[in-house]
Amino acid sequence: xxxxxxxxxxxxxxxxxxxxxxxxxxxxxxxxxxxxxxxxxxxxxxxxxxxxxxxxxxxxxxxxxxxxxxxxxxxxxxxxxxxxxxxxxxxxxxxxxxxxxxxxxxxxxxxxxxxxxxxxxxxxxxxxxxxxxxxxxxxx
Length: 140
Hints:
Layout: H1 5-11, H2 14-21, H3 31-46, H4 61-75, H5 82-99, E1 106-107, E2 110-111, H6 134-137
Helix pairs in contact: 3-4, 4-5
């Protein structure tokens, strides 16, 4: 996972997390519920990291932040306030830019250059010259 429950508590209001993750009213943040949201957010982030060899050597701060934002959105289960929706949309926009190479990942100011290597068992097709074409079929 790219973030922890402690990261969520540091980043967001503990009262908000309590409301979102304490369905029984026990008065404690539901660790398992928040961890599930963080796990789901991490899987979503991974879906954008196809250019990178996973796992990353270290979690970039930007991924930790966006993981928390996405997990927070997931905790609202479809009824997120506008500010939470906006943060989620911003995270997805940035991840889309990352997946297309418009932005890069950095760890301590250095670009992460762990692009996935080309497949070892690449299949190449080779065959004879083309027999039929638009030109050769004219007149039939």
